[in-house]
Specification:
The chain is α/β, with parallel strands linked by helices and 347 residues long. The chain has helices spanning 13-23, 43-47, 59-67, 77-85, 98-116, 138-146, 165-168, 186-194, 213-226, 233-238, 259-266, 294-306; strands at residues 4-8, 28-35, 71-75, 120-122, 152-153, 243-248, 251-255, 273-277, 284-289, 316-321, 327-332. The strands form two sheets. Strands 6-7-9-8-10-11 form a six-stranded antiparallel sheet, with helices on both faces. The chain has a five-stranded parallel sheet with strand order 3-2-1-4-5, sandwiched between helices. The structure holds iron/sulfur cluster (SF4).
Length: 347
């Protein structure tokens, strides 16, 4: 009977190659892609006007299409919070809990194969590829702590690891698997060429914003300021967009950097107090935090105006909109950007 494997598909080349290697051994492969809310996938590029020439696609779906496999996109936003907030194995260079993340995702894939009557799990992991989660020492940790044990097959580096159940049972031929190690991408690129794969996503850094330093600083600021480590999906989406400036512990400004971000932030106006320049082209600012007093409002308006085309004008008109969506016009002298206290600028 045809064996069935589920492949963790990130949208990158490695998981694509891993799935293809198993597919070509006659195994029926389907893909699973986990949506955490932190995914880089298309988000910022989809928003920012300056990136409009870049191809916008969901790379996981695109990989599935290239492989001719069914893709299951699974929302794990809520369950994933505990991984980000309190990772047993700690963080990488930024707030990326890569090892706990892998364990969590493989564990969820294990549940999935149980529910869907599949036989084993494939990932695109390569020993030595990433400093935190893809080391020789962490490979068994992921297999053990996820509970997947030897149902977890890493086709790209299987020859450097003990035999798994699919190999022992002859569901896949071990000699047709790979023994790739290290950070070089050349073996994967050669394999891609062999498979006739010419177009693939080349993510810089990692698969999610948690590997990004500036993003991690913003997330840490959010936790510090709230006095607790928690977040909602809207919080982590808004950390991907705009300049974040905190002039006081009471409030933070999220200031759009260009038209695409202004449009994106407009969708959140009803949840926040906001400021928009009227007399000159300029940003939209969302104000996160308590209702502003008169001095705080003046400061927020001046900072917003400082980022507008009226930055050199004596006065800029802005429209302030409170939480009840009552708006009023305010004339303000712009604050030059270089006079904004550096300590206020989160990222
Ligand atoms: S980069 Fe992000 S999605 Fe990828 S393993 Fe690390 S925490 Fe998980």
């Amino acid at each position: 009977m045809t064996k069935k494997a589920v492949a963790l598909i990130s949208g990158g080349l490695d998981s694509m190659l891993a799935a293809r290697l198993i597919q070509q051994q006659g195994v029926r492969v389907e893909g699973i892609n986990f949506f955490t809310g932190f995914c880089v996938e298309g988000h910022t590029h989809a928003i920012r006007k300056r990136d409009r020439d870049r191809v916008k696609r969901n790379n996981a779906l695109w990989v599935a299409e290239q492989l001719g496999i069914k893709l299951h996109i699974v929302d794990i936003v809520d369950d994933y919070k505990k991984v980000v907030i309190n990772p047993k194995h700690g963080y990488g260079a930024n707030l990326n809990p890569c090892l706990d993340c892998k364990i969590f995702m493989v564990n969820r894939a294990l549940d999935w194969i149980g529910e869907h009557d599949f036989d084993f799990i494939i990932t695109g992991e390569v020993i030595g590829q990433r400093p935190m989660s893809q080391r020789k020492a962490t490979m068994p940790v992921i297999a053990q702590e996820s509970g997947a044990e030897d149902l977890l097959l890493r086709p790209l580096c299987a020859l450097n690891l003990p035999e798994t159940l699919p190999e022992r049972e002859g569901w896949v031929q071990r000699d047709q698997l790979m023994g790739i190690t290290g950070r070089s991408r050349k073996p994967q690129m050669a394999l891609a060429q062999e498979f006739g794969i010419e177009d693939y996503a080349q993510p810089a850094g990692g698969c999610c914003f948690l590997t990004d330093q500036s993003y991690s600083v913003k997330l840490q600021d959010l936790w510090t300021n709230r006095g607790r480590r928690e977040y909602e999906l809207d919080d982590i989406m808004l950390l991907k967009v705009g300049r974040h400036i905190r002039p006081s512990p009471d409030f933070k400004l999220i200031i759009s950097r260009e038209e695409g971000e202004t449009n994106f932030l407009s969708g959140y106006r009803r949840q926040f107090q906001s400021i928009k320049t009227v007399s000159h082209p300029g940003p939209l600012t969302l104000i996160e935090g308590a209702d502003l007093d008169a001095d705080q409002l003046e400061l927020a308006c001046a900072i917003t105006a400082g980022y507008s085309k009226g930055r050199d004008a004596d006065s800029v008109e802005v429209l302030f909109c409170d939480r009840a969506q009552q708006s009023r016009s305010i004339q303000i002298k712009p604050m030059p950007v270089d006079r904004i206290d550096k300590a206020w600028i989160i990222a």
